[in-house]
Amino acid sequence: xxxxxxxxxxxxxxxxxxxxxxxxxxxxxxxxxxxxxxxxxxxxxxxxxxxxxxxxxxxxxxxxxxxxxxxxxxxxxxxxxxxxxxxxxxxxxxxxxxxxxxxxxxxxxxxxxxxxxxxxxxxxxxxxxxxxxxxxxxxxxxxxxxxxxxxxxxxxxxxxxxxxxxxxxxxxxxxxxxxxxxxxxxxxxxxxxxxxxxxxxxxxxxxxxxxxxxxxxxxxxxxxxxxxxxxxxxxxx
Length: 237
Prior knowledge:
The chain is mainly β and 237 residues long.
């Protein structure tokens, strides 16, 4: 399947998710305004709803939970500090561009395959670190990100068209088995490949237990698990 990516609408720069979010939460708030309600006497026990008027507009929020881990990076010189991977997401939440003498946050596309294409701004980001080395460098990061959809009519000028996202992998949804057979390697659009953190959740009950799962099954590259590979708990509780 396609990898989720944030695409800067002005510069075309891409910030790819190391692993796709397991879930996406959409929240819609209608544009409503409460009106004064003073028709009832003080102490009235009658129940009534406050009158309101539709103002138009509203807001749509998108929430994502993301996992980054330096151990998942396949490179000749992998990073030792996970913050080098997540810093680009923090920059998307900064007032880093200037339009008509006003500082603004970047407008970005949230792209995920053919199903998700939303123009938004990153409204809030929170990050929790663990797997911290003696040097103080964190090796794993859990990010919760909240974006707000914006209207195409207010997008910055000189925007670029959404680009094709790079490929990634996913896993089938199974109910706490003791073994999972990877049914695809992610090379085709409809493949379901080996998403190692989610497999660790299914088998061991903890997405952060993926290094242990790889050790049990002799997996050297957690992002390239061949189709047909059987991953098991190896008798681990």
